[in-house]
Structure formats: C-alpha cells, structure tokens
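Reviewers asked in the last cycle whether our approach scales beyond single polypeptides. To address this, we selected a multi-component target totalling 296 residues and predicted its structure end to end. The input consisted of the following lines:
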Amino acid sequence: MPIGSEYYYLPVLVLAFLVLDLFIDVKSLPAILGHLFFWLYWLIYSAAAETALYFLHRTNATNELPRGIPNLLLAFIAIVSTTTVLQSLTLKFGGKPVLDFSRYLDEYRRGVLSSSGECKARFEKRRVLKQSGLILKKVNYNAGEPESESRMKAIYADAMLFGARDPATVNQEIVEIRQNCANSGGSFGALIASRVAQTDPEWVRNFLRS
Amino acid sequence: MSATLDIAKAQTNLAQDDEAARVFQFILNKSAAPGWMIVKELGQDAATTKASLVKLRNLGLLEGSGDGLDGFYHSTSLGYALREVL
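The resulting structure, written as structure tokens, was:
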C-alpha cells in the first residue's frame, strides 16, 4: 500500500495539538519547544497517532468506515483516538492495575510542564539581565558616582513603592542592597536595576520608553 | 504511593496556609516567576512571600534557581499533580 501524504503531515498536526495543549499552562512557545522532554513526548504521540491512522485506513479500505473521508479528517480522528486511548489505557488484573499507561503518560506530561517552566524561568532571567543593562544604560550609570547612585535609589523607590509598602521598608531594602554590595563587591546600580526588572517588567518597559 | 502521600501532605499544608496557596497558584498561572514579582503581583509582605516560597520548596511543589526573593521559581511535577486534585 503506498504511503499517503497524510502520514507525513500527521506529526505536524500532532505537534500543533501538543503545543496547544501545553500552551494553556506554559504560555510561552519557546519554553515549550526548548527542551528534549517535549520532543520525546511528541515522538511517542506521533508514533501512536501514525499507528491509529494506519488502522483507520485499513478499516476504511474494508468498508467499515464510509468511503471518501478526507485524509485531513482521518488524521484528525487519528489524533483524537490516540489521545483518548492513551489517556485511558490501563491493564487490570485481579481488580488492580498492572500496567497503567495513562498514569505514566500523565506523569510524563507533568514532567514536560515542569521542564517548560524551568525553561521559562531561564528566559525570565535573561529578560531581567537585558532589562537591567538597559536601565543602567538609560541612566548612564557610573559606579561610585554620587549622582548615579541617587538616580538608582530614586528608580528603586519609584518602582518598589507599591501596594501597602511604606518608604521606610523601601529605604531599608536599599540599605540591605548596599550592604550586600559591600560584602560581595558587586555593583550597587546593577543590583538595584536587577531587583526592579525582577519585580515589574512593565514598569521597566514604560521607564525605558519615557 | 509515595507521590500520593506527598500530594496529601502538600494539600493539607496549603489548606492551612492561604498565603502559600496564593503563591503556589500564582506560579502555576505564570508557569515561572521571580520571587519579587510575586511580592508585587500578590501585594504581599516580602517576608510572607519568602516564607511561602521556602515552605513550597520544602514540600517539593516548587523548584527555583537562586535563594529567597531573588530566585526564579517554577512548579515541579508534584506541583502539577497537586493542581489536578485541588
């Protein structure tokens, strides 16, 4: 039997299906695609969907399904049936599950979500680094220069005074950051900028635009 | 079985700690977040958020790079398992 084109584009449809499924939780496409666990998940799902499609073609050929079903619809049915079968595949013996494939799959899916979260946390770190650099550039920060330091303090106070926080708390945090810098030899401006970027990316975007 | 016990333990802990439950829910919604962002978005006291993060980490619901509020946090597999029963 010649291999139809639907066998080639089915993995792409599976990819779209899995990305949509995970995107609801992760909300970041690069974080979903950025680790090996996802691609293994996709491989397992694609192999199962290809098998389902093969059986659908066979039943179609033996007239158990109406003839003339579009290939795209067959591929869609293959994905839906794969999902329902994988999500409920359990072998019970003596009333106890001996092989609970659906549980393994759920556990693996949770692992994929966790790895995507880890990936997203890495992207967040990169965003913080980038925004910190842009803040320092915008205020033309020079370490040790009193004017630069006061400007960074003002930025911190502006960004970190939110909700029920009072100026005394914010001032105390500035003192702690200064102490940390003295202990570690880090840059006061860089630490302030990093803290602000961690706290409120939107505030930083507005600040950089102003 | 061990995972089931961990989930039950975490569920009991979160039921008794509203602030930690809010932090956990926020991280699940965002998928990953820096500690200071949680302080701002939830309008919590910094010390409360920090304590919640330590608690959630000890329960195995969160993982993070860095310590305290300067860390970046995401949910673990156990965290996602707990979400399914909450």
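The helical segments of chain B are 2-15, 18-30, 35-42, 46-58, 77-85. We regard this as preliminary and will revisit it once experimental data from Aim 1 are available.
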